[in-house]
């Protein structure tokens, strides 16, 4: 059921997605994360939120409080892409952590409750994501709940968050009879059997054909209005080809001019595959986002692109104490980090040795020899780095987060 409309990557970095899941508490962020990890094969145990066995909520304090406090990054694979999922806290008390996570993301999935629609914390986290220019797609979750209504939820997105929600699915069945969706791009239905992990694909049910055509038309009109390049094709033929539509949705997502909306029920494991397809299709790779800016040793602002050959620079966005020692999560912005190498904390001028480089997966950590620009990894070794520290090549200091600097950066060369 993978759609060829979306295959586009040519180099390893274009197939990386650094993503976060943003939501109001209880909208289903943890459940969506769990389902993604299950589906992408990184864990075979389906942890449920209520029994404290979920993979991303591994900190005991989180389990005790039942909310996701600390961000953790987990890697998984989907359709030839590597998705680094950065868990962002949804609780308003942890706004700093949300902001720090947003800083290292290239894109996000905003999860909404299909009954409650946009809630206060979804609104505040949405505004923070606006500030950091994080492109987003939306997932209206809990369509199986009594009172769930996609149109009402989308209306609340339109009124409170974004004027241009672009709904790409039509639900099949409502509330506890919600069984699948019509994919409006390909005009195919996806139906999930009870307990089944993957959808059965088929034609659009006769009873929904008129409605699906009407919604496809609405989507095309909205896209043509927002994306001038599509307008010509639309005016000439009064319809957009699926390929143009997909390209336009990608551009609109990345420019922030439109928000693709999908729906499902994470709890019942419905809608997660198309959500992952949309995430890799529409959200940007590390090469598609602007160069990162920082302050060089002479006090001037510098830019670094995601070039593995450039001097190394990375932002530590999370430090976890684990039973086997301190793990520092890094977003590598430029250069290449090699196991055993010595790097410098640009804020404190301390040098730190990188012992191990780990790709954190839900079920196990994989050890790497190096990490390149664009990637998210955890490293063991640094003793003093904290969330917000910049680690960089000692010969080319760059400070990525000036707010956390205690002293000016000077050369140690
Ligand atoms: P978070 O606070 O955003 O991480 O939300 P959770 O994933 O912890 O979900 C909050 C509650 O909603 C839990 O009891 C979930 O079992 C439940 N939940 C999550 N997704 C769905 C869904 O699709 N349908 C229904 N009915 N309940 C869900």
TrEMBL record:
<keyword id="KW-0547">Nucleotide-binding</keyword>
<comment type="function">
    <text>Catalyzes the GTP-dependent ribosomal translocation step during translation elongation. During this step, the ribosome changes from the pre-translocational (PRE) to the post-translocational (POST) state as the newly formed A-site-bound peptidyl-tRNA and P-site-bound deacylated tRNA move to the P and E sites, respectively. Catalyzes the coordinated movement of the two tRNA molecules, the mRNA and conformational changes in the ribosome.</text>
</comment>
<feature type="binding site">
    <location>
        <begin position="23"/>
        <end position="30"/>
    </location>
    <ligand>
        <name>GTP</name>
    </ligand>
</feature>
<comment type="similarity">
    <text>Belongs to the TRAFAC class translation factor GTPase superfamily. Classic translation factor GTPase family. EF-G/EF-2 subfamily.</text>
</comment>
<protein>
    <recommendedName>
        <fullName>Elongation factor G</fullName>
    </recommendedName>
</protein>
<feature type="binding site">
    <location>
        <begin position="141"/>
        <end position="144"/>
    </location>
    <ligand>
        <name>GTP</name>
    </ligand>
</feature>
<keyword id="KW-0963">Cytoplasm</keyword>
<keyword id="KW-0342">GTP-binding</keyword>
<keyword id="KW-0251">Elongation factor</keyword>
<feature type="binding site">
    <location>
        <begin position="87"/>
        <end position="91"/>
    </location>
    <ligand>
        <name>GTP</name>
    </ligand>
</feature>
<feature type="domain" description="Tr-type G">
    <location>
        <begin position="14"/>
        <end position="287"/>
    </location>
</feature>
<keyword id="KW-0648">Protein biosynthesis</keyword>
<dbReference type="GO" id="GO:0003746">
    <property type="term" value="F:translation elongation factor activity"/>
</dbReference>
């Amino acid at each position: 059921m993978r759609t060829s409309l979306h295959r586009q990557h040519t180099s390893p970095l274009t197939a990386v997605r650094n993503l976060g899941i943003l939501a109001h508490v209880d909208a289903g962020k943890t459940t969506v994360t769990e389902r993604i990890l299950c589906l992408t094969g990184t864990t075979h145990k389906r942890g449920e939120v209520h029994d404290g066995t979920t993979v991303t909520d591994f900190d005991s304090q989180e389990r005790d409080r039942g909310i996701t406090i600390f961000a953790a990054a987990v890697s998984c694979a989907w359709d030839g892409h590597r998705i680094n999922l950065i868990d962002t806290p949804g609780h308003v008390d942890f706004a700093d952590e949300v902001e720090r996570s947003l800083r290292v993301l290239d894109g996000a999935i905003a999860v909404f409750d299909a009954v409650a629609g946009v809630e206060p914390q979804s609104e505040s986290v949405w505004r923070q994501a606006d500030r950091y220019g994080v492109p987003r797609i939306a997932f209206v979750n809990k369509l199986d709940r009594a009172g769930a209504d996609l149109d009402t939820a989308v209306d609340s997105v339109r009124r409170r968050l974004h004027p241009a929600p672009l709904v790409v699915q039509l639900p099949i069945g409502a509330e506890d009879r919600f069984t699948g969706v019509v994919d409006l791009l390909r005009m195919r239905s996806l139906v999930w059997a009870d307990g089944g992990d993957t959808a059965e694909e088929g034609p659009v049910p006769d009873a929904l054909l008129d409605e699906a055509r009407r919604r496809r038309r609405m989507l095309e009109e909205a896209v043509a209005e927002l994306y001038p390049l599509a307008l010509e094709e639309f005016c000439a033929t009064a319809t957009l080809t699926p390929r143009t539509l997909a390209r336009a949705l990608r551009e609109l997502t990345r420019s922030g001019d439109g928000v693709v909306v999908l729906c499902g029920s994470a709890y019942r494991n419905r809608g997660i595959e198309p959500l992952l397809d949309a995430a890799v299709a529409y959200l940007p790779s590390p090469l598609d986002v602007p160069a990162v800016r920082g302050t060089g040793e002479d006090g001037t602002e510098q830019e670094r692109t995601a070039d593995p050959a450039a001097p190394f620079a990375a932002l530590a966005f999370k430090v976890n104490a684990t039973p086997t020692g301190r793990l520092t999560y890094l977003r590598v912005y430029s250069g290449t980090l090699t196991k055993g190498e010595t790097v410098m904390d640009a804020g404190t001028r301390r040098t730190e040795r990188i012992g191990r480089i780990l790709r954190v997966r839900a079920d196990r950590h994989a050890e790497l020899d190096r990490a390149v620009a664009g990637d998210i990894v955890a490293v063991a070794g640094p003793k003093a780095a904290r969330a917000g520290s910049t680690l960089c090549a000692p010969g080319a200091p760059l400070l990525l987060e000036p707010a956390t600097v205690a002293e000016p950066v000077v050369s140690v060369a």
